[in-house]
């Protein structure tokens, strides 16, 4: 059943009604987003896991709706507040998940613009469920990166949070059924026929089906490498990472270890995990 609630130093990558066209006459990326009523504001919190920074997405107007307000950085918050003001106020705040770089500025934002908060867990006005509507946004459960993770669909755009990134891949938290649920969610997103994916980090993705197929194949490739290693008698965390995640930079090795645990859980759930396998420390 669908549920609807009636609306009662940052680096900006943003769209507006006055964006320019490219020299060729084709619409620029900003224009393509603006045609859908979407603006992207990128926080200046770059890092190995956040890429160029966390994206805050603002959609619609009179009122606007915010997806992932982002980290508590003064300049970023100023940009978010300014965009909300230009768009006629705030109807609500939706969180793809509750990691700090996506939700940290929520309390300050709500002090300025009191509005309902929707998320997959926590003290919120709307606890999200698969298929539920929050203003113009439809929630789609996308577990894997976090157990409370949701994507949001609006028209032909899908806001994927950390389920799908504009660059690279994501780590999977080892919760029961996490990796199987993640693969199922990717397959479901692929069948939606959306025109653009708006990720939590990195640029928009204008070929959603290809990127989602790439994500699925990437995860299955990791599984095949892991199974090959296990078949050769590999059992330690270090050796499994060397076998299946040899391309991962050292700075991302801890995230790869977390994802390895999720892969081992999936194999155990399917009865394919041999005895004596070391589980990574969490």
Task: Write out key terms for the chains shown.
disordered N terminus; 6-stranded mixed beta sheet; 282 residues; Metallo-beta-lactamase, Chain A; alpha/beta; 11 strands; 8 helices; 5-stranded mixed beta sheet
Describe this protein's structure.
By secondary structure, this protein is of the alpha/beta class. Helix content is 33%, strand content 16%. It is built from eight helices and eleven strands. The chain has a six-stranded mixed sheet with strand order 1-2-3-4-5-6. Strand 8 and strand 9 form a beta hairpin. The longest helix has 24 residues. The N terminus is likely disordered.
CATH topology of the domain at 29-207: Metallo-beta-lactamase, Chain A
Q: Spell the H/E element sequence.
A: HEEEHEHHEEEEEEHEHHH
* CATH hierarchy class name of the domain at 29-207: Alpha Beta
Number of strands: 11
* Class of secondary structure makeup: alpha/beta
The gross shape turns out to be elongated
| Most strands sheet | 6 strands, mixed
User: Can you count the helices?
Assistant: 8
Helix content: 25-40%
Alpha-carbon distance between the two ends: 37 Å
What average pLDDT do the residues reach? Answer: 91
CATH architecture name of the domain at 29-207 = 4-Layer Sandwich
């Amino acid at each position: 059943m669908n549920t609807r609630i009636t609306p009662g130093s940052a680096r900006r990558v943003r769209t507006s009604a006055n964006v320019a066209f490219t020299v060729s006459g084709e619409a620029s990326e900003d224009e393509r987003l603006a045609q859908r009523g979407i603006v992207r504001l990128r926080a200046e919190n770059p890092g190995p896991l956040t890429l160029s920074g966390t994206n805050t997405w603002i959609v619609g107007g009179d009122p606007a709706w915010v997806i992932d307000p982002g980290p508590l950085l003064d300049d970023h918050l100023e940009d978010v507040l300014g965009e909300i003001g230009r768009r006629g106020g705030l109807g609500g705040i939706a969180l793809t998940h509750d990691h700090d770089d996506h939700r940290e500025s929520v309390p300050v934002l709500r002090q300025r613009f009191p509005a309902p908060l929707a998320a997959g867990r926590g003290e919120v006005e709307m606890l999200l469920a698969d298929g539920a509507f929050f203003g113009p946004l439809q929630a789609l459960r996308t577990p894997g990166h976090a157990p409370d993770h949701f994507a949001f669909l609006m028209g032909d755009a899908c806001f994927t949070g950390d389920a799908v990134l504009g660059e690279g891949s994501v780590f999977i938290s080892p919760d029961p059924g996490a990796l199987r649920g993640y693969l199922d969610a990717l397959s479901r997103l692929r069948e939606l026929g959306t025109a653009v994916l708006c990720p939590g980090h990195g640029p928009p993705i204008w070929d959603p089906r290809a990127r989602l197929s790439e994500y699925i194949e990437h995860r299955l490739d990791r599984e095949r490498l892991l199974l090959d290693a296990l078949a050769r008698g590999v059992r330690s965390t270090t050796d499994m990472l060397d076998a299946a995640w040899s391309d991962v930079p050292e700075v991302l090795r801890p995230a790869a270890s977390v994802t390895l645990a999720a892969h081992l859980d999936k194999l155990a759930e399917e009865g394919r995990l041999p005895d004596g396998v070391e589980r990574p420390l969490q």
